[in-house]
Amino acid sequence: MYSESLAGAGKKQDFLEASPYWDQSGVPVNTYKNKTPLKGSVISTKRIVGAAATGETCDIIIDHGGKMPYWEGQSYGVIPPGENPKKPGKPNTVRLYSIASSRYGDDMTGTTTSLCVRRATYWCPELKADDPAKKGICSNYLCDASAGDEVKLTGPSGKVPRRPTQPPPPPRSPLLLTPLRRSQVMLIPEDKPDTDLIMVATGTFISSFWILAANSWMQTPAGVEFREGVFHVVSWSEAIFNPSFPYRFMHMALASFLTGGFVVAGVSAWYLLRGREVEANRKALSMCLWLLLFIAPAQAVVGDFHGLNTLEHQPTKVAAMEGNWETSRNVPLLLFAIPDQENQTNHFEIGIPSLASLILTHEWDGEVPGLNEVAVEEQPPVAIVFWSFRIMVGIGVLMILFALAGLFLRAGGRLYKTRWYLQGMRFMSIAPFFAVLTGWFVTEVGRAPWLVYGMMTQAESVTPSLTGGMALFTLIGYIVVYALVFSAGVYYLMRVLYVGLEDADDEEHASDRPARPLSAAHVPFEIESGSHGVHQAKPANEGGH
């Protein structure tokens, strides 16, 4: 049928068809390079916008003789004649233009291609005319080209993703010659899309490294001198790898894994309770629980080392965490208390004898510093630090218990059938966020009143020219922006969770034709309207499979 459709139009070109015809592995890429371009010839140049239209756009048909095959969505490079104005003696640099014709060209033989080019000009308000010195070199060259003019071509550029795909339905008519859907020729810069994930993960890791290095330095400053109100770095290695950085970085890294693991596990548990995508979510839940079984106890061990480091370098913070006012031995671990900072005491204490000494010093009668070792004005807000620490530790213990319970249920073959556990994992999906937030409360509030611990107070760091109005305006701006971004993110996340992991059908989605932010996601941002005018979103594969 292919040969018949081209009968009388020209000779068949073998490169036009893949075998099978949806196979993308044979896409030509960079057949001709900048140093060895293909010399094609202009067949015709035609203006394709009306006389009254703003600007000028032309359709240029170029004959490449079948030597430079391409696929839909790729680009040709064009090297305009003349010297590079920025590099005298060198040729002009290549300009890329998206190909406007199918791989079969304009005469259906695969020997031509079409470029739609807008003439680039610059209107000079002083001259009240186009400035010829600032006009686009290549666009004007192509728009002014005549039939028979030589054109130097490079490419074709752009790679088609290597991914499993199903053959699209054959064209209704042989004359349509559309063997590929648009989604299957979407160009990406890399052969392996997973590279993007690696780059994002690496960038996030680097970002967390420097954020925690800076914050740790504010907690345990090192490698600097404070002269005349200015910090001078004397050792970058000591400043970056300050005494608390290794413990703080490891503690936060494990917290990130715990947060991600419990979120995925909680969502999977919710799906299993609803009977949706059962097989996929069993695997997801199982993998997360194995991860949590090791990460959760490891976090407790790292937290212990972090606590010992904090006791050494920030004893006042530790005293606030424990609600300990007097330096003493055999200090109990307070499970409940109401700190009274004004009177420097606690009310309604409930504790376990000597346990705080054991945890902090690894000795039953170990000495724990008290808040009275420093002046009242150098004490942090004790109540906030005290209760934030207990919430963080309590959630951490709960994480360990859930991980161990998962192992117990797995051994009995009841992991995916125990409703109370699956319900519990749903609620545990938000627990790590509270643990992280309260952990940062302990870290930052516990540092008060110091900006740089022991070297600069928060009051000393305030910019003299900063007014209350300026600070309030900035704060309101941050609150508004982050409220909008966070709300939109949470809304869309909820939509993703409701719709599910898999598409509801095998039809092409609008996401296959990216045109704006979020269009590459299979879940629409807008809530679709139901048959009766009720706004709803249909979850995929409800009931399982």
Report on the structure:
The protein has 545 residues and is of the alpha+beta class. It folds into 3 domains: 2-184, Translation factors (Elongation Factor Tu (Ef-tu), domain 3); 243-462, no CATH class; 465-545, no CATH class. 39% of the residues lie in helices and 15% in strands. The chain is built from 12 helices and 16 strands. The protein has helices at 2-5, 137-143, 194-219, 236-240, 245-274, 278-313, 315-322, 355-361, 382-411, 419-428, 431-445, 468-499; strands at residues 38-47, 57-63, 75-79, 83-84, 87-91, 95-98, 112-118, 123-124, 129-130, 150-157, 224-227, 230-233, 333-340, 345-352, 450-452, 456-457. The strands form 6 sheets. A 6-stranded antiparallel β-sheet has the order 6-3-10-1-2-7, with helices on one face. A two-stranded antiparallel sheet has the order 4-5. A two-stranded antiparallel sheet has the order 8-9. A hairpin with a 4-residue loop joins strand 8 and strand 9 (129-130). Helix 5 runs antiparallel to helix 6 and helix 6 crosses helix 7. Mean pLDDT is 81; it is low at 1-13, 171-191, 503-520, 528-538 and 540-545.
